[in-house]
Amino acid sequence: MSYAQQMLWFLGKRWRHSEMPNRLTVSMVETFTEPVNVGALRLALADLISRHEVLRSAVVVDEDDPCLVVLPEVEVPIACHDLRGRPPAERPTAAEGLLSDAFHASVSAFEAPAIRFTLVSVADDLHHLAVTAHHLFFDYWSARLLRRELREVYAAFLAGEKSPHAASEIQYVDFAVWEREMVRTPAMRDGVEHWSATLADLPTLALPTDRHRPWLPTGEARRATVLVPARLAGDIKILAERHRASPFMVQAGVFLCLLSRLTGQADVGIPTLFSGRTHPETWNLMGYFDRLLFLRLRCDETETVSAMLRRVRENVVTAYEHHEVPLLRVIEHQPRLLFLLGNPVNVWTLFHLEVDPHRLRPEALGTQVPGDAPTDFGGDGEDEEKVYSFGADIDVTLRETGNGLYIRALYNADLFDGSTISGWLRHFRTGLQRAVDNPSIKVGDLFPIP
Predict the structure, then answer these.
(1) Are 295 and 272 in contact (CB under 8 A)?
(2) Residue 366 pLDDT more than 50?
């Protein structure tokens, strides 16, 4: 296993009393607005699985230590549902139900392939392909990579041509082996020392909850969203440029200050998600590469927003300079981090910016394919649909779209009410607005919280 997989495995075990271990999944849907040749589609999916070894992998536990095995070949697990025989008025609801079932289906990491396909045919020119994969083998970059390669290979097979993609010279397991070798280098040892010092005495994040954490967590989560209008999102970029920072640094800084106000703690720290694909060789590999980087800030409510941003910029730059250090290696030197992750008082909060890989690495993924345009999270509000979160009690995702910046919080429904999280997100938006309106404002005046 790679270190990223081991960390995800550990996080999944935190929910051993709930449904979570079987719900560490990534789901996507690809829509075809033309007739689909199911035989060619099966061959295209088989081609993908044959070229990407990680999709043929499974977990084997040896004396409590998980490791991966790669099978030489597997069958393509695709379920086909044809709704064209039903009355047209019934098809959309039936299709929605089948896709929802596919997205919420359990995928075992112990059985290869840990990926499932469901084809729902609504009309001759409307077909939905749902893809659900175990997160240990598949991240969101992989989802977009699968979408692009599937379209290209499927088109080639329809035309009677060979697959345009050859098997990669390196596979995910090669990356995992290389990573093990890297941790022995002096640079990596220096990085471990940096993170050990940075995270020493990191306090628990004691956010106020609506309910105590139950002894048997359900793993149930819900969503809340707010929209940062396009004009404010643009002003955030201008503020960032003036401080030689990135928009993410502005957003993270204001969010950390909000957590400080909500908890009453001057010292706050949260992890942020990083793709981990810094080497070109990984851009066209499927697998799980995500890493957690910790951002820590000692908030001073008497300093200005400008002063706070300068410190946040320094912290973020330093964090990314040591991004290749596996968190598990740091835990070996700071075992207290295990206590923080498992402490019921700690409200584990994740904050990250969702970036479309096409925009991040255009030379790696090429042009967008149909159906790959970013989708909106929705406007302000709360979603009562039950979903399942693999780890964080509050997972805040920011995504830039044509309408502005969407802020979505996936939150632990055992602990929080939707009104609480929605209120916090609105405070966050207010803090961003006040920061761009007046960078000289005191940090303590960013939020309308008594």
Answers:
(1) yes
(2) no
Alpha carbon distance 295, 260 (integer Å):
13
pLDDT at 390: 47
Long-range contact set of residues 9-14: C-beta below 8 Å, sequence gap at least 24: 9/59, 9/66, 9/136, 10/328, 10/341, 11/341, 11/390, 11/391, 12/390, 12/391, 14/341, 14/342, 14/391
**What's the pTM value of the predicted model, to 2 decimals?**
0.80
Taken in order 359, 360, 364, 365, the sign of the CA dihedral is: negative
**DSSP three-state, residue 396:** strand
Domains, the chain, in order of start with CATH, read 3-175 (3.30.559.10), 201-445 (3.30.559.30)
pLDDT in tens, 338-363: 666 655 555 667 777 664 433 333 23
Q: Is the peptide bond before 280 cis (omega within 30 degrees of 0)?
A: no
Give residue 172's identity as a one-letter amino acid code. Y
Place of tokens 């929910």: 15
Say if residues 110 and 58 touch (Cβ distance below 8 Å): yes
C-alpha 287/C-alpha 5 separation (Å) is 9
Which residues, listed in sequence order, are joined to residue 25 by a DSSP beta bridge? 134
Q: How many CB atoms lie within 10 A of CB 163?
A: 18
Across 107-111, 192-196, 214-218, 296-300, which has the greatest mean pLDDT?
Answer: 296-300
Nearest alpha-carbon partner for 430 in 444, 443, 448: 448
The Cα–Cα gap between 106 and 109 comes to 10
When pLDDT is cut at 50, 70 and 90, the band that residue 14 belongs to is low
Rg (the chain; Cα; Å): 23
The C-alpha atoms of residue 391 and residue 25 are separated, in whole angstroms, by 12
C-alpha 275/C-alpha 360 separation (Å) is: 11
Q: How far is CA 93 from CA 49, 87, 120, 383, in A?
A: 31, 11, 12, 19
Residue 405 pairs with which residues in a beta bridge? Answer: 228, 400
DSSP 161: P
Do 354 and 192 touch, CB atoms closer than 8 A?
A: no
Among 55, 56, 30, which Cα is nearest to 150's?
30
Q: What is the pLDDT of residues 22-56, one digit of tens each?
A: 457 888 899 999 999 999 999 999 999 999 999 99
Distances (CA, A) of 104 to 33, 92, 110, 152: 24, 18, 18, 28
